[in-house]
Amino acid sequence: MASSEEQVQIASDDGARISLWKIGSGPPLLLIHDTAEDHTRWRPLYGSLASKFTILAMDRRGRGGSTDGPTYDYRREFEDVSEVLSQLGQDVNLLGLGWGAICALGAVRRVPATCVRRLVLYEPPIPVDEGPSKVPPFVIERLQGMLAGGDRDRVVSLYLTEVAQMNGAELEEEKTRTAWRGRVGAARTIPRELRARNDFRLDVDAYRELTTPTLLLEGAMSPDQLRRGTAWLHQVLASSRVTSLPGQKHVAMDQAPDVFLGQVVSFLQG
Known about the structure:
By secondary structure, the protein is an alpha/beta fold.
């Protein structure tokens, strides 16, 4: 099914070209990937989603088919998503994973309420304290040094084990998946995104009045800091609910796709 994707590009204000990969029919569903990924991370789900939704899988700037701007500022990523939403029109369903969920959050307050019909956020890395929520600077510098040496595979592997907390068996399984090539291609964006994660603070007051129905997904086995961030965000958002996926971590769409899809489709079609 991936061969029938149609590439669409949208211009951002600073000259970056943002690629969307379109497939399927039905209400629009914009998919925003996580750190060290591109749109290909969603391809294994197309068979289940494309019969129900028009999928628009976005390559965030500097990854996949999207170009970069002259300088990086994480707020530009919020603007990219809001520009895409504005051009798609009304009643777009929006699903963001990890830092992609942060980008989704940053975008929804920049567009009219009618743009986004329903919002799904899977473990956005909301910083709730100064300790475990932050990525140690020495880890980021180590990744930067590996990039300078050209070892992109090792950069992605270190990120997934040290930051995303995959174990060895999970990492080896990840290397066999469709998305691994996209992960390696996005390796150069990992350090800048981790620095952005450390700097990011949610403007709580800006979100207390957000009325978009929101599903907050978490893995029941995910790291405590991610689950704390989800619980905290649930207290901020006026119209949210939390669903914990039993036996799962941050990648239930890979490890238990039927469980993940069941929750997402039920919510979006509700």
